[in-house]
Amino acid sequence: MSTDATSRTSMLRTLLHRPYFWGLIAIALLLAVNSLKDPSYLAIGYNANTGSLVGNVIDILRAAAPIAMISVGMCLVIATAGIDLSVGSLMAVAGAVSMELLASAGGSAGAALAALGLALLLGAVLGAVNAVLISVVGLQPFISTLVMMLAGRGLAKVITGGQNTAASNETFRWIANGYVLGLPVVFLLAVLIVIAVGLLVRRSALGLMIEAIGMDPRAARLAGVNRRGLLFAVYIASGALAAVAGIFASASVMTVDVSNTGYQLEMDAILAVVIGGTSLAGGKFNITGAAIGALLIATLDKTVVFLGISSSATPAFKAIVIIALCLLQSQRVRDLFRARRAKTAPVTSDAPKEAVAA
Amino acid sequence: MSAPPIVEMKGISISFPGVKALDRVDFRLFPGEVHALMGENGAGKSTLIKALTGVYTIDEGEVRIDGTPRRLGGTADAQAAGVSTVYQEVNLCTNISIGENVMLGHETRGPLGINWRDTHRRASEVLEKVGLGELDPRLPLSTLSIALQQLVAISRATVTDSTVLILDEPTSSLDANEVENLFTVIRSLRDEGVAILFVSHFLDQVYAISDRMTVLRNGTFQGEFMTADIDQATLIATMVGKEMKALDSLERASSRREVDRSGAPVYRAEGLGRKGSLEPTDITLHAGEVLGIAGLLGSGRTELARLVYGADKPEEGTVRLEDAEAQIASPSQALAARIAYASENRRDEGIIRDLSVRENLILAVQAKRGWARPIPAQEKNALVEKYMNALNVRPADPDRPISNLSGGNQQKVLLGRWLATRPDVLILDEPTRGIDIGAKTEIMEEVIALADEGVAVVFISSELDEVVRLSDRVMVLKDRRKLTELLAGDSLTSDTIIATIAEESAPEDPGSLEPAGTGASS
Hints:
The structure holds two protein chains of two kinds. By secondary structure, chain A is mainly alpha-helical. Helices cover 75% and strands 3% of the residues of chain A. In chain A, the strands form two sheets. A two-stranded antiparallel sheet of chain A has the order 1-2. Chain A has a two-stranded antiparallel sheet with strand order 3-4. Chain B has helices spanning 45-52, 75-80, 98-103, 116-129, 146-159, 176-191, 203-209, 232-240, 245-249, 301-309, 331-336, 346-350, 357-369, 377-390, 407-419, 437-453, 464-470, 494-503; strands at 7-16, 19-29, 34-38, 60-65, 68-70, 83-86, 109-110, 113-114, 164-168, 195-199, 212-217, 220-226, 267-274, 278-285, 290-294, 316-321, 324-326, 339-342, 425-429, 456-460, 473-478, 481-487. The longest helix of chain B is centred in the C-terminal third of the chain and has 17 residues, at 437-453. Chains A and B meet through helix 9 and helix 10 of A and helix 11, helix 12 and helix 13 of B. Chain B: This is Sugar ABC transporter ATP-binding protein. Chain B: Residues 503-522 are annotated as: Disordered.
């Protein structure tokens, strides 16, 4: 019993030291606030007609899926000490090309697969263009992807001829609106992709090498690490994941809004990565953290709507929550708290430390 | 001895998690003396300095400055108490002017903000004291050599009328001439009554400049000696706690070895060169041979190594490995061809600070295997354990961030990184710079052992003694081209190498003939 208890407390402690711990707390707090306003907020119902669970929480999971996709890609890019501002625009490109294809090719499952493939390919190619500009030409990631952000939005408009193309294809629609085991397909897909990317980078040596070039590109190069190849890998991954996010976003309404699909979502992705405990300076990264960050952003978005905060005040509300979170994560602020605690109760603050050591 | 000490530290203890960095150490510093703080890496020198400059708070003990007990809560406290520090890596801003650097935070203020004219005039006065009076303080600092920047850093420390000046490894990147200039400045400051704490790995320099020394070992006080009363052998024995027999056994290890140069060379380059970096140079490496490269800073020795490794892309020349023609244009190609290169710049091109010792050690092997074939955990542990034991890395904890290790131990981890790739050719560029004598000996022993195993080793060092001691053949470089190659033998000494370089010397610059840190002449 007692060993069980200590292992549980030590598990709690390791969780507490995870960078995304405060992100989880923030999600819980936001949900609690919403429950205060409406006690049935967390209730989950079952719709027998569609075989699906329904409720606010399910909506949040669904909304988090596209953000999680671009956040995971952004996380890898940021780990190399870069940044990818083009993900929002690439979402629009992916949505535009798949909607155009479906609008002309009809409602078959084959057309849906072709649309998926084409969108992913285009995302990867545009990601590769970013990589060429950054690793071959040697431009700064900020500038290269800023250019791609503008060019991508333009490209999306060219593809649809400036229209907000709509299409109907049940298979494609199912990706965003279908259910498996009562959960939205889009959420399950996102979870699978996050796990797959996480395993890929941590089970192979990719993670170590990405961190190495992010921390010290010169030393990593002399150690034989192929920086150019890794940069291609992360920017292509980021582009392809942005395409997935674009498919998610456009499939839910079966329309691409070339001006608004993915608009400013690169900011959400960057925030999610930072909330997840990955430093913008590059180096150590945390995929799980980025996914939790995406979940928090989605929760925040829904909360703003639910609380009826006026749309003009929304950015400010978001900013306040995120600033509070960053403060909690900052080492300096933590040290400040720790120093105060140590002063008031030096005995109690030491005791648990020893227990963990033992 | 009659004057009371300006700094008195008694029973100083400082602990870090798991380590007692200092254990009841005593230290005194008198005005008007140069006091050397001696000890191996990890002996506690830096910790003691940081205790005195307020970077670390002490757990136990008392610091008295000028007779009054002080609690130093930060660097500002130490500066207020008259303690100034010049660190090994010059901490100045290269993008602003010399004068601004010197006077930063002490500018003359007038009714309209800073009076730059007066500030620069005062900067000139301060620079005059270190013999830089003729410098224009309005020039950007980046126009100065590292040696002059060091002097500027010292003059900056004197602006605050410091009574105590700490110089931490000030000579590690200076050549002999520049060291002499620095010593002149130190002596004049000493004669003005400033107490100077001097830390250096170069024993000859310590003997040349210091009046008194304190020796630390493993965080404990070993004794305080007048420099005149202690000879080098005794000092080294006190520092390392063992007789330095190892260094003697290395003496001319090369002369006892036979190198077979009849077979095809492991590596052979003809006309290897790159514009602005190295004139076309031939270099041949044989299995089991140590090739020393001698030359002054800027002679092209590092450039040659980088071209061989592909760290810089060669613009001309042909390379043959064994008997096959090869192209080596990048480090990853070199590693695939079993060539490894340990850079002289350990901090920026060697270690990756935020990675653990384990990750640093396996990085090159992993890069060679490619990302898709991670080293299995068991193999990884075996590899890390093998090289940490073989090279005696301390502390023996592979999960510690490498930035926590002392310079000597970082160097050993890096050596392990390259050895783990099982190279046929290993290029070591200044592997012994800035590390203590114990680690130095271990690394030099390893070089001999590697050559005995059949590795072709290229050994680059500005300490000619070491080059002569280890090498079977010495290539002499000057002004970015090869002068000659000398075979090891009784006639090869650091003096003959110096003479070779000197014959080619431009007459107006005779002072630079003496390489930095040569121990041979003394």
